[in-house]
Specification:
Blueprint: H1 3-25, H2 37-47, H3 59-62, H4 82-90, H5 92-110, H6 114-119, E1 131-133, E2 136-138, H7 140-155, E3 165-169, H8 175-183, E4 188-193, H9 195-208, E5 214-215, H10 217-222, H11 228-231, E6 236-240, E7 254-258, H12 266-273, E8 283-289, E9 310-317, E10 325-328, E11 332-335, E12 342-349, H13 350-355
Parallel strand pairs: 3-4, 3-7, 4-6, 5-6, 7-8
Antiparallel strand pairs: 1-2, 8-12, 9-12, 10-11
Helix pairs in contact: 1-9, 4-5, 5-7, 7-8
Length: 358
Amino acid sequence: MRSVDKMEDIKLIKTIEENLHAAKEAGIEFNPDGLGEKWESQVPQESRRFINSDFTLREDVIRNFRGQTVFIYDWPCAKPGFMTILRRLIDGNWRGRYKVLRGRLKLLKDYNCADLLKKYPSSTVGNPNLFSYKGYKYTWRWTRHIYLLWLFKQVLEKRLSSDFVSMDIGSSYGVFSNLLKKEFPKSHHVLVDFPEQLVLAHYFLGKEFPEAKIASMKEIRGAGRINREFIRKYDFVLLPWMYYEKTQPKSLDLLTNFSSFGEMSKKYFDYYLRNEPFKSTPYFFTCNRFHSHSTYKNDISVLDYPLSEFSKLHFDIFPVISERYRRHGILFYKFFPYPSQCFEFIGVRKPLEKKGEL
C-alpha cells in the first residue's frame, strides 16, 4: 500500500471508529434478542473478529474482511497456491464449488449480462480471493449482484430518474448499492443492516468511492428526521436497522431486499414490511426463498410477502442460486438441491400507479 493510500486508509478507519463510539453513546443495542436463529449467534461471534471491546477496529481484519469471509461466506475461500490447486484436484467438495463458479459465468453469458461483469469485475477491497476464468475476475457472491444489477436495468432503469433514492435492507457490506452507484452516479443509497455490518459497508464504500459523502451514526444522530432531503445530501446513508422506522414516508423511490427477509424472525419480517418507509415506497425489488421453514424456524413463505400491494413488473425463479455440490467419497462430488428455490419480484405500488403519482 502506498504511503498516501495508507494515510487515507487510516483516516477512514478512524472515522469508522468515531461512528462506532457515536452509536454506543446513542444507546444502540448491538446484540438484541429475537433476530432469528442465524443472526442471534452470528452477529456477536463475527463482530468480535474485527471490533475490539473498546470499540476500536482490528485493522488487519478490516483490510482483509472479504478474504477472511467475515460475516458473509464467499467462494473461492482460499488464495491460489499449491495447497489450493491440490485440494481442487483431490477434494470433491472443492471441485464441486469450482464447478459452480464456472457455471456462474455461463449463466451470466446465457442472460447476456456478462458484459456487466467485464465492466465491473470483483472489487479488490477487503482483499477477496478471486476466481480468474476466461478473462473474468469474480467471486460466487459477486456474480449474484451482477445478475441483480442486470435485472434492475432490464425492468427499472427507464422507470426511475437518474438521481433515484434506494434503500437496501440487509445490505451487508454494500455490493449491490456499490454497483448501482457506479452504474447510476447521481443515485442515492440507504443501507440498512446491523451496526456491525455497516462498519464493513463504511470501509468498503469509503474505499470504492473516496470522494463520496457517507452519512453514518454521527450524521444520523444530528439529523432531526431521516427524510428525502437528508438522504439526498449524501451518496450513501448507513442506517442501523433500529432506525428504520425513523425514515419518513415518501423518502424513497425503491426498496430492495435480497435473501435476508426469509432469514429473519417473523417479528422483524413484519417490522420491515408492515411499516414506513416500505408502505409509501413506489417500487419493490426482492429475491427471497419461496419458503424458509426447511432452513429456518420462522415459517415465512412467499405468501407472507405483501406482493398484492403491487402491480407486477417482473416475477420469475431466481436462476443464480440453482446448484450446489457436496463431497461424495473423497475424490468425487454429487449434486444436492437447495431446500427451497428463490423467487425474484419487481413491482410498482398500485395506489400510486392508479393516482398517476409516478
